[in-house]
Amino acid sequence: MPEQLLSVLGTDGAVKKKDRPELSDQDLLLLHGTMVRTRKLDERGMLLQRQGRIGFYLPAFGEEAAHIGSAFAAEQDDVIAQSYRQPGIALLRGVSAETMLDNCFGNAEDIVKGRQMPVHYSFKDAGMISISSPIGTQIVQGAGIAHAMKIKRDGRVCITFFGDGATSSNDFHCGLNFTGVSDAPCIFACINNQWAISVPIAKQTASRSMASKAAAYGMPGYLVDGNDVLAVYEATRQAVERARSGFGPTLLEFLTFRMGPHSSSDDPSRYRPAELESEWEAKDPIERFEAFLLREGLLDEDAVKAIHAEAEAEMSKAAKASMVKPAPSIDSMFDDVYAELPAHLAEQREQLRSEGGDHAVDADAAFPL
Amino acid sequence: MPEQLLSVLGTDGAVKKKDRPELSDQDLLLLHGTMVRTRKLDERGMLLQRQGRIGFYLPAFGEEAAHIGSAFAAEQDDVIAQSYRQPGIALLRGVSAETMLDNCFGNAEDIVKGRQMPVHYSFKDAGMISISSPIGTQIVQGAGIAHAMKIKRDGRVCITFFGDGATSSNDFHCGLNFTGVSDAPCIFACINNQWAISVPIAKQTASRSMASKAAAYGMPGYLVDGNDVLAVYEATRQAVERARSGFGPTLLEFLTFRMGPHSSSDDPSRYRPAELESEWEAKDPIERFEAFLLREGLLDEDAVKAIHAEAEAEMSKAAKASMVKPAPSIDSMFDDVYAELPAHLAEQREQLRSEGGDHAVDADAAFPL
Amino acid sequence: MSEMTLLGAVTTALREEMERDDNVVLLGEDIGVNGGVFRATEGLHAQFGDDRVIDTPLAESGIVGTAVGMALHGLKPVPEIQFSDFIFPAFDQIVSELAKMRYRSGGEFQCPMVIRTPYGGGIRGGHYHSQSPEAYFCHTPGLVVCTPSTPEDTKGLLKSCIRSDDPVLFFEPKRIYRTVKGEVPDDPDFTVPIGKARVARAGSDVTVISWGAMVHTCTDAANLAAEEGIDVEIIDARTLLPLDEETLLESVKKTGKLVVASEATRFCGVASEISAIVAEKAIEYMEAPIVRITGFDTPFPYALEHVYMPSPQRVLQGIKKVATFDF
Amino acid sequence: MSEMTLLGAVTTALREEMERDDNVVLLGEDIGVNGGVFRATEGLHAQFGDDRVIDTPLAESGIVGTAVGMALHGLKPVPEIQFSDFIFPAFDQIVSELAKMRYRSGGEFQCPMVIRTPYGGGIRGGHYHSQSPEAYFCHTPGLVVCTPSTPEDTKGLLKSCIRSDDPVLFFEPKRIYRTVKGEVPDDPDFTVPIGKARVARAGSDVTVISWGAMVHTCTDAANLAAEEGIDVEIIDARTLLPLDEETLLESVKKTGKLVVASEATRFCGVASEISAIVAEKAIEYMEAPIVRITGFDTPFPYALEHVYMPSPQRVLQGIKKVATFDF
Ligand SMILES: Cc1ncc(C[n+]2csc(CCOP(=O)(O)OP(=O)(O)O)c2C)c(N)n1
Ligand SMILES: Cc1ncc(C[n+]2csc(CCOP(=O)(O)OP(=O)(O)O)c2C)c(N)n1
Ligand SMILES: [Mg+2]
Ligand SMILES: [Mg+2]
Hints:
By secondary structure, chain A is α/β, with parallel strands linked by helices.
């Protein structure tokens, strides 16, 4: 029944005993800590952009439970194919904030060598494939990764994350349809934050829910409260278990709300009412989870404050470290187009070298993603 | 309930009174006559191809009820956006067999001026848009036509026809999703003949039916017995009525069977069992409808024979007429690329003229579509 | 005449043509209430309503496919693709359907429409917000491809395109959306003809042909060249397909020297076509190699954008190379 | 050595590489039990089973997107696009994802794969079963584009491509799938290097460069030219991206005359790129215009295919034009 919103955490943080997922105290605190760190990373990213230190940033305010809770249900060697709006997964999987900010600065230590815009990460060691801007492309790639897992029988699963807007993409249709047929171990995780930039879900699809689209592909679909980290975790855990046991794919919809702008270039006041924003601010997934942790006695108010302060300090330190690193070398521009540098690129590199690097054009920084 | 197969005609031709669509005797005979003519046109097309007179043909054996019954529910000024496998719609709408065969011969009287392969018709006067080969493209175009109808408030509807394979296409997803949102008067008619060349529906999608995909787009979907011309007609009539009254789109699935090869290039014995073919031959939609007409006393055996013979003669005559027409002029190759001939094409035409038309290459005829 | 930005010229042209012809409808992502992410459609939703300014689901193939259907049924759609980098999901509808519709139907159907899309680098957009994909469309018979560089041409060309019976890809140089301003005729029937280049600067020593934002880079280069005594003629192609060969050939026959400047990657780009045309039709006039100054044959980089993109200095280098060449 | 058709060489290369490397998997429409509509995968499903020869749903973007994912997870996919005319729904996955994966991930990921697809005219296929879309892919940095013309090169190149770490578009000239036969080395490690052209015929008067089925048309033209006393050198490009400029430039520096012959539409085609390279790097050697003999800039017609396609006579005309040209 896709139409039933699966929920575990009460808005007051109360949880029915039978609903409580089997998570250790340590797990619960790790989840919470990662959510807080993610929030702080995003705040720092937005600040760096406002200060003109980085050209662009894209935060996930309000969506921390949806993506972190979900990714937590996978093993470290399961593969994540995500969009640009799940920064918490990298933090969860052990990537440092400094490494992430190196990407935002596009500096010489950026793993992707300054080639992509901010927040377009690639973390192979953490099992996370390269992020690109075109909406939806990772969905069918996730299907392919899972299909390869099935062929290789390596016991892994793939989770692919995408937005509500992405359900309209060609690659959503292909990814789910192919996987319905192949029965590959793929979990399709739709973070329905109700907006695709300015376009609300009612203009995105007439379907009653995103989860209900699963039937079109012969797979189960579940609508989950995306601001409830425990429900998100538990729904994903079950889907992962099914996939790993050979029972095929699942579509999960995490209903949440994008509490911030689409990106540093966006101004949501142009297209959505302030009241809606306040309504959802009251449902902040971090506060809701904290209410649970306080109620369960896992944390007290001081501990919560300390966790926030520590995360804040972590991000400030990371930003300071990233900020001072040099830009990538000009020569590096020609690497990685091919496995080996072909003659025409060697020639173009030579040409650029001969200019002595003094032919720069001015680029203006602000633009809408 | 998409999973229930809607049916009116018994296999013995019997019809429950309450199920009988409101169709005059004349309508019933027109439907039958068109189905027979379509069968004969296809037989002629295949024969012409086997004789080497045309390069290619693609028949609709077994699918006559599905497309003719459906198109019959539309008004003449409603628009049809179809695939290559609904020849009966043109016959139904008054296009002559000769005009159709002119296309198959690619001769000077071919409406599309010999530019496309056989069976890629364009019949603007009959309200039928140009057919192309890429699978699925007409589905989203049909959505656009219907959207234009809604904006223009011209009271028309659009029916777009496509195969089971086409449900996997990007344009199926876009066409249905956009129309779910726009509520435009579009009927999506899937002719599920159970095969996309050699690929059976089980490898095409894991969905329980094509009709059940409708829910993903917030529209009703119905699974209809595609070999039952009366059920097909009635389901479409209701969908047309809903669309015309402003209640939006419908997905219809007509379950049928491709009794012949995919095309003149195809050999189904490579991929499907002969028993399956005989099983479905027994369900021939024309014979089933004839059983009804005989039972109702609208026709007797002699009349049926006469109708078949007449259709046969019509096609033979049309073929003879088309066969002798000249090829399109060489100059015509440069027309219609743009509204007006641009300089570079004028120059290329000049160049070709200067060759005196003697630079022809040999093309070999047989190839798989 | 009114002074406006290139972006303002887009909005003005759209508004005027929508006022003139009820069949003109806009569709795309975020073009309604939000006015487009660049604000090209600002105010148009308020003026023309839901039926004529349509926010679509997120699918470019759906946008173009729907527009093809609309055009078949008598509307004149002007779809927006938010960034030209995102046009590729619509490639099949453009190449297989839109471009071939009139031809394949023997002239029964046509699909007049203008696909507007911001293109080009210089806004720190990295791989997917910077590309110049015009060549893909120029290799597709049946399409018209336009690339204005001034507010006046933007307004005049966009209006011509909307009035045309052919399908047009209208590439808007987003880098100069707001930085280039100019006087634009107010006459609602002011148009600029499709298929005609513009001599942006007359000169006698070297011909430089370019389009879009690069025209301004070339102007800077020409100014630098003038300081060194080289008199550069700049041709702004404006329409890439069909290309105005006449103006091009006339100029190179005069100067005998040609630099083609383009932001796009070089291999199989429009710059190569222009070079090939001259090498086929006017080689006997050429007194130097035909030099292409283009983007490098790599994906568009983020941090190194400023060295990736052809600068005035790089164009100048090309100008000097041909100006001083000795066979 | 064994004699085989070009199609047989495809099948043989696939079989050998699948035997050699368990990670090689095939996917596409009708490639399983049916053996592909051209029978290129005949027998492979029976030999390698469902896991390695996969019949997919009807969606080219799904085929390529799935293959990208498979490659990311360590397989070596060889997707088939049934006709190259149907590759456009997959254009976004190819251009935005496949081509840029290594670059955009800073070298963390790569997507080695070979997209095989029959291309070209001459089989009475009309608009949608005849096109030569190689230029679209040649304009896309990160891709390798190959176009063999003989059974030997087909086997050797396809094997090199499957062993390569780069993504390859492998265009198979379907017109000569069965009509061209030749001796092919049996050695399972026989390969032909990517990026190297082949001098298909040595000559001293005029250079003709071509690829795919057109190489045979050019050979016919060269024979006709020989009768008129013109000694033609034919270069079979074999790989279009990266192009073997060295072999090309060496030849034109010798002959001073160049004809580029291609089935594809002219504007912004690969023929134009080749012309532009020569006009940039060897114009001082050229003794005649660089002539392109190509398909016309119209959609591919059905009934007039025989006059649309470049014939030996038309190539000959080009050869004679440059051979007799006087500045
Ligand atoms: C193919 C494509 N079209 C358009 C865009 C521009 N764009 C960037 S994000 C976005 C909205 C995405 O919405 P959704 O999928 O809901 O994800 P969210 O941003 O809400 O996380 C759009 C239209 C794009 N990146 N890719
Ligand atoms: C985009 C595209 N890919 C592949 C093909 C080759 N092809 C032609 S018909 C066909 C099968 C179509 O199946 P279906 O949609 O069920 O229609 P049917 O032929 O059964 O009527 C295929 C794969 C094509 N025409 N277009
Ligand atoms: Mg969203
Ligand atoms: Mg079918």
